[in-house]
Amino acid sequence: MHRRPLLAGLFAGLAAPATLRAQSAGWAPNRPLRLIIPYPPGGGTDTLARPWAEQMRTRLGQPVVIDNRGGAATNIGMELASRATPDGHTLVINADNIAYFPMLYRNLPYDLFRDFKPIAYLAETPLVVAINPNVPARNLREFVALAKESPEKFAFANPSLGSPHHLGFELLAREAGIRMIQAEYRGGGPAMNDVLAGHVHLGVFSLGSVTQHFAAGTLRPLAVLSTRRSAAAPDVPTTAEEGLPRVVNALRFLLLAPAATPPEAIAALHAATLASLEDPALRTQLTRAGFEITPTSPEEAATMLRAEHDRWAPILPSLNLNLG
Asked: Are 75 and 151 part of one and the same domain?
């Protein structure tokens, strides 16, 4: 559902120094950049954004300062970014589920397609159902059986209303025919902490944020929400293998700038982004954390963002969500 071919020759010319590419594009940053992450610290977005931002620093010659602004299903951080000075020095990274927010929220403080300009998709990671190991279920089928035996006994940690994690869970609950209590949080980090502590039974998380907990035995994976297994967790079955082939969702991260950002700044930031994602150490780090690097052009990113909006249009009404 989320796969797509990359353009041939996408990385042509990446061997040139980024500072030269920026100058040839007519723009280079003259002070530190601000990268807004519209989630609290500690979630999967941080796992991707922080090492990538360090690579951007080496290529642009300026620090990239992380600004975590969690809350309101990322709408606080997105509104802040939409109102930033459009000079190339303020960026925001988010998952592309924001494409369907206009169908969930009546009074969004920004218009995604009017107020932002995509620079590139960066990477994607499958979502995975993870459970506290004290729950006596070794796989998703066993947990579904437990949940059916005891409706509303088990609690799901929802990191953000309207997030891919939330909608992934809603799809799972609908397809499996189970009812659970939802505990709402302001990000993946706080939600994961409560599942780790056993205050909540399970959650849906980005694979990149929980692989270390699987290795330590502090969380147990039940299934990835995908039609194929992840190379970062090859022993974890898919929802399709567990009998729920329509429960498929992933986190796809992209970089955006305020819409009025000059084209030469977009071009320079795009070139530096592609060069950063080609760094061997970064690629190894992100792959081990469960990410697949999926760079695009700005034009591809805009097309894919619109397609994500259109993909959910026939699905959301059936989930009966009312997020205000």
From this structure: no
